[in-house]
């Protein structure tokens, strides 16, 4: 059993993202390339994006802090602190509407 504060991880990553040229920072908190399940905390400063990309499997985003938008084709979904989004299996992008931190969970197929 292992316990970790995602709020503390998010706080640390937000501080790092604020000084990073890319305006983002991430840390895998569970899993990895050799496992099916991977969970990553991602911090994005307001106005930054994760450009259009595909998903290697089923994926969700849980917003730990802030607001973001997920877009796929002509559709978009806004989320804020406490919201859980099931990401589309199609190509999509994430945009930080304000400074935000999220938990990305991916179950690779």
UniProtKB/TrEMBL annotation:
Signal sequence interval, chain numbering: 1-20
Cited CDD domains: cupin_HP0902-like
Top-level taxon of the source organism: Bacteria
A Pfam family per the record: Cupin_2
Domain Cupin type-2: 43-99
Keyword Signal (UniProt): yes
Keywords per UniProt: Signal
InterPro entries given in the database record: Cupin_2 (IPR013096), RmlC-like_jellyroll (IPR014710), RmlC_Cupin_sf (IPR011051)
Name the record gives this protein: Cupin type-2 domain-containing protein
Organism expressing this protein natively: Rhodococcus aetherivorans
């Amino acid at each position: 059993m292992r316990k970790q504060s995602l709020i503390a991880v998010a706080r640390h990553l937000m501080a790092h993202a604020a000084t990073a040229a890319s305006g983002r920072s991430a840390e895998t908190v569970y899993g990895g390339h050799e496992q099916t399940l991977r969970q990553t905390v991602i911090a994005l400063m307001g106005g930054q994006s994760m450009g259009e990309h595909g998903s290697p499997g089923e994926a969700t985003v849980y917003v730990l802090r802030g607001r973001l938008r997920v877009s796929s084709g002509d559709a978009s979904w806004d989320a804020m602190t406490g919201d859980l989004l099931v990401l589309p299996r199609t190509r999509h992008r994430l945009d930080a509407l304000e400074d935000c931190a999220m938990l990305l969970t991916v179950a690779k197929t």
